[in-house]
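From the pipeline queue, job 12 of 40. The input is one protein chain; the requested action is below.

Action: predict structure.
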Amino acid sequence: MRLLRGICGGAVAALVLLPGWGAGGVALGAEGGDLQLSSPAFHPNGSIPTRYACDGSNISPPLKWSGSPRGTRSLALIVDDPDAPGQVWVHWVAYNLPPEAGGLGEGASGSLPGSAREGRNSWGTFGYGGPCPPSGTHRYRFKLYALDTRLDLRTPDKSGLLEAIKGHILDRVELTARYAK
């Protein structure tokens, strides 16, 4: 754990960085990795274009990743909405993504590379379901995990995937964006 200190308006401010997590949402990897996740369609904390939402084309946005730590055998992706009423709403679960692919193109859901698979979202279907907030602006978290294994799962949902990756996470990163109808 690292502790960063600074002066902010005359007060001392501290930021605690947990092992494997860096500042600004970019995780610092084990084994010298520096896992990063971005999208050419939106900026971190920016707005997701309507094209990728339920009131647009409802296709998955393009994603780019780099910096997988040594020993990474696969990646897992969870996209969820922590602002949904009543529960965290899961928009996409994907796993066994090949790290060497470097990302996913627009509309990749349903046609993932190699032996990558999709799990069940909160609608009870497989694949990507775009942002669809009932009201207001919601945050959408794109969480990418570098794993030291490939997974042999049968139709997992978010909780099943999280259970399966326990003890296998080499690095992780989160990209957050926003959407309002």
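Job complete. The chain has one domain: 20-180.
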